Structures are given as C-alpha cells and as structure tokens.
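Exam revision sheet. Question 4 asks you to relate a sequence to its structure. Input first:
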Amino acid sequence: MAASLSDQVKVVRDAALALEPNCRGLLEAIGDAQFVLIGEASHGTHEFYATRAELTRRLIAEKDFHMIALEADWPDALRVNRYVRGTGSDSSADEALRDFQRFPQWMWRNTVMLEFVQWLRDWNGKLAQGKPAAGIYGMDLYSLHASIDSVLQYLDKVDPEAARRARNRYACFEHFGQDPQTYGYATTAGVAEPCEEEVVAQLTDLRRKYGELMGRDGQHASDEFFYAEQNARLVTNAERYYRSMFRGRESSWNLRDRHMTETLQALVNHFDSGRTKIVVWAHNSHLGDARATEMSARGELNVGQLVRERFGANAFAIGFSTYRGTVTAARDWGDPAERRNVRPGLAGSYEELFHETGVPRFWLDLREVDSGAIEVLSEPRVERAIGVIYRPETERWSHYFESRLPEQFDVMIHLDETRALEPLERTGEWERGELPETFPSTL
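Answer key, structure tokens:
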C-alpha cells in the first residue's frame, strides 16, 4: 500500500538539511568533484542566482575552482571574462556585461550577476603570482553573427589573407539578414543552399594554421587562437542548429546540449594544468540527468547526462525548486521582462511535497538519504521548469515534466517562497509587477 502524503512529507522532512549561509554542508557533499553543475528552476528567480553565486564563490575560494561556464553566448561571456581577468578595456562590471543585448537580456544583466562579476574581478586582483585567475565562459550557440564577427576581427589582426577567405565563406549568410531562423527556414524549405560546407571549411582552415599562429606571442596567442577557434566551432554548430529547428530529423535540443558539453571539454583541454575544475550554471532542464525525466522518452539528452557519461563520479549536479513567489519572465518570446506571480506548486509535484514539510529553506543529499526517503523521492512526480517565458494559464503542460529526482540530481535545494530576479534594465511592466489573481476581491 502506497504511503499517504503525510507519511511521505514526514520522511522528506526528516531527510531535510539546513541550508547554511556559508554552504558548508554543500561543500562537504561536493567533495573532490571536478564538475559542479548548478541549476535553476527558472531563468528569473533571485534566490536561485544568489545561492548559486555564493556557492560558486566558496568553490573558488576553498576548492580551487577557477572556471565558470554559463548558459550564455561565447562572445558575450568572453567580454566579461576579459574584465574579470583584467585584460579587457571595460572600467566596470556593468560595462563588461553590455554585450548581453539579445532577449532574454535579464538572464545575465541582473543585480546578482553584476555583483558576482565584480567579486571575480576583485578576487583575481588579489591572487598571488602564479595562481590561476578565475574566468567566465559561455557555452551556448545562439550567437552566429556575433561569432562570425569575432572570427573576422581575430583574423584581421593576425592574418589578413585568411580574413579575406573567411569573409568570402561567411558571406553565404548575408542574404538572410540578422535573424538566423530566417536562414534555417529558407534552407530547410529548399529556397536557398545551406552554408554547411563554407563554415566547416573555415573551421578546418583556422585549425590548420594553429602551429603558425602559436609561434607569435606565447600564452596570449594561444588563448586568443582558442577563443577564435571556439567562435568558428560555434558558427559550424549554430548553422546546423538553425537548420534542425525546421528539419525535424535531429533534435535541435540535442545539438545545443552537445555543443555545450563539447565546450566544457574544450575548456578542459585548453586550460588543463593538472586537473581543471569547472562550475556550470544553466537551467535544471540542462543539468539534471535527462535519463531520469520524460525528456529521454522523446529521444532528448542534455548536458547533465553527457557529463555524467563522460566524467562519472567527477560530476556533481545540483537542482533547485520553489513553491511560490514571483519570477522575472516574459509572456512570449521577445516580450518585455515582467515581474510575474508564480502559482503554488501543483498537487502531486515535488514542489508540493517539499512545501508540505513546512521547512522554508533546505537541501537534500539524494545520494545519502535513507531507503525510506529514496523510495518516496524516486516515485515519479512532476517537477516545474520555468524558462524565460511563463504561462500560468497552461502551466501543467507548459512548465511541468515528470522526473525521478534521485536519478536526476545529486542534491536538490528547495526555497519555498522566492522573488523575482532584478534586471539591470527595468521596464514599466517589471516595476509594476502583476496583480494577484484574486484582485480586487482578495478571495
């Protein structure tokens, strides 16, 4: 006979661990992991970002992590990386974050990120000579045109003839304007030829010049070549990604998460000085093992699954959940950011189970809980995921998916009531917030 909800709640309450301000218990649970994947249940919750930033500061200061990989575009994050490492021209964290202009701008231009970037700059400035500086890198592949520009700027400086060849190849995209989806649709519909051969040829050509370009300026030349190579690889994968959005033969989701995982491997390969340790920031849906969710039944994989398969026990995945509060999100793609009300977790969800414990902030070590808790938590339940769009009117279908939590994450952090992430650019819609559903009756 299945345990009642009250019995299940008691088991979870007994397993709940206090979330300490210094993250001491979490650091002990992480141990010697090389990859710490820290998720978020929305792209717009202050507490998810703030807790993740604090844990990352502790990992850098106490466990010698010095790379943070973000669910962000490579060229935009590279500007931030140059600022925190003291090699860029920006005079403030706000300036360094200004390349994050495309929707959803608030994901990385927010008050938590501003403070964290400045902390990294200050941390690096105090390091003893010879100690590796902490850096920030983007894993995503939406920046097709920005990455093309970055490759051309690099080649203009180091090899003008190679830059001319690259311009000729990348000119293939000029007929489609600045929206890569237009390119994807046109090539899939057969009204234009794809640029696949050109972008692959450009990546190959750049890699052939590695030896020649490396002999020029030591480590600086090596890093600059690596940054350019990653932009050229991004263009190659983005070209396939935008075609796959309309082609239907290969999941665009899988292409994107494979690209992000390849970026992590590239960072290890380039910067490895013994044993590179990387913190990864992305949504729960990217970092929790897809094999433990309904994604797997759809043939989808994700970064969490691929990193576990490749690095095994060296990977440690942390998820977040919340029951209610507010969130920064849009009503539709490209719409202004709004401060929206998050509905209470659905009946039968992990969010409801955690809320019923009555503990406002806690974490669960899903590897160490006793058999009773494992049994309760392993029962398939729905779990909420809010991205950059929140549609409460269709919430069950838009924002919930079935999962088995102990197989999905190593740790789950629950913050029962949370508030909206604060964008650096606040619209009138965000400042006003959203009226409660019961307004004006309050019933």
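Marking note for examiners. The longest strand covers residues 67-73.
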